[in-house]
Amino acid sequence: MMSAKLWAPALTACALATSIALVGCSKDTKQAEQGAAAQKMPPTEVGVIVAQPQSVEQTVELSGRTSAYQISEVRPQTNGVILKRLFTEGSFVREGQPLYEIDSSINRANLDSAKAALVRQQANLNAYQVKANRYRQLVGINAVSKQEYDDLVAQIKLAEADIAASNAAVKNAQIDLGYSTVRSPISGQSGRSSVTAGALVTAGQATALVTIQQLDPIYVDINQSSAELLRLRQQLSQGSIDRSNNTKVRLKLEDGSNYPIEGNLAFSDASVNPDTGTVTLRAVFSNPNHLLLPGMFANAQIVQGVIPNAYLIPQAAITRTPTGQAMAMLVNAKGQVEPRPITTSGVQGTDWIVTQGLQTGDKVIVDGIAKVKPEQAVVAKPYQPQAAAPQAGAAKQGATQPAQQNKSSEQKATSNT
User: Fold this and answer.
1) Would you give the end-to-end CA distance of the chain in angstroms?
2) Taking the CA atoms of the chain, what radius of gyration do you get in angstroms?
3) Cα dist. 105→81, 169, 199 in Å?
4) How many CB atoms lie within 10 A of CB 92?
5) What element of type H or E holds 172?
6) Residue 30 Cα distances to 3, 19, 21, 39, 269, angstroms
């Protein structure tokens, strides 16, 4: 009995030591298995693009409105009654085309009177000249006094001045008679006529008879913030962008479609609007089909310049730190992930324009960027954009529509029953 009691504590201690040893062995074995499994896992595959420098257009999209290239408010330049309108409202008229006919009876009478006065002055001049020729001979033999001859010469000069005044009066009368036919000063689209036949009009009246607008080409007035304009000028002075060519402008219409013809930036205002803080830019677009009408809203995409040696990187490949620093994940020569801070300068389509931080041949991770971390070994494969996703979605939608049609047919049959 005493020996059994003495051996019991010893046996318990041995059993405890044995269990601890077994647990330790199991932990070591589990860690070893995990390490072996980790070593056997293949590196993560990522899709990369190879950075290649290129000349990239720097664009900015701004809102604007169209305005006519030329506007002419046609007003009468003589008094009279409108006899007839010679054009169709809303039609295209040519420069010099007759628009209105004003009663010309008074102007014609004024012209006849001016011509008659001119004939009278010429007759007086002829009489003075004949008399002067006679006096010139008589003065030589002292048959006529020198004073009488000098007076006759002065009368001839006055008659010549009267003839010049009469000629001017005839020309004025002819001009007034010509104003009896109101002509279009420019070629363009006519608007609504403000008068009809029988209306009395006066020279220089406040109300225009009709407004003519030239629509081809056409202006697009754009508002750009002064801060954006200042940044652009600083980039030009630093040589960051090239603006050797004319600035091109592309247009997006109100319905979302793109205008097929590119325009050119023709004018930039010299002052900033203090109310809006913007500068007005004016672009010129060809408008052969008169698709653009004055007053239409449009978004203008202005090519401000060309950035040399820039990189186009998909937006999915760029992340930003909490401080706003743009970061790209690269695959270095060792096949490991390397973070790289970069500098962007705008967007082109779905790509960032990268101006600093990348070098030619860098492998930028685009696909799988969320599954990697710095210094992780990866396998780089060329990035393939997923273009089949829309087709799959369309197929799925096509498969859903027949099912919905069948379901509606079943519901209709049930309701009929």
Assistant:
1) 94
2) 46
3) 10, 17, 16
4) 15
5) helix 146-178
6) 41, 17, 14, 14, 76
Question: Taking a C-beta distance cutoff of 8 angstroms, is the pair 91, 190 a contact?
Answer: yes
User: What's 315's DSSP letter?
Assistant: G
pTM > 0.70: no
DSSP line for 369-380 = GGG--TT-BEEE
Q: Looking at residue 186, what is its pLDDT?
A: 94
Q: Which two tokens stand for residue 333?
A: 């020569």
Contact yes or no for 58/345 (Cβ under 8 A): yes
Q: How far is CA 312 from CA 53, 316, 360, in A?
A: 8, 12, 12
For residues 339 and 358, is the Cβ–Cβ distance under 8 A? no
Residue-wise pLDDT for 236-279, tens only, equals 565 555 555 557 888 998 888 899 998 887 777 777 878 888 88
- Residue 232 phi/psi, 5-degree rounding, is -65, -45
Tokens representing 272 are 């900033």
3-state secondary structure of 402: helix
User: Among 359, 323, 353, 329, which residue's Cα sits nearest to residue 341?
Assistant: 329
**pLDDT tens figures, 365-384:** 999 888 888 988 888 899 88
Nearest to 200 by CA among 76, 111, 86: 76
Q: Quick one: DSSP state of residue 317? A: G
Residue matched to tokens 């007839």: 84
Question: Residues 332, 337, 342, 347: is their CA dihedral positive or negative?
Answer: positive
Residue 361: phi and psi, rounded to 5, are: 95, -5
Helix (H) or strand (E) holding 77: none
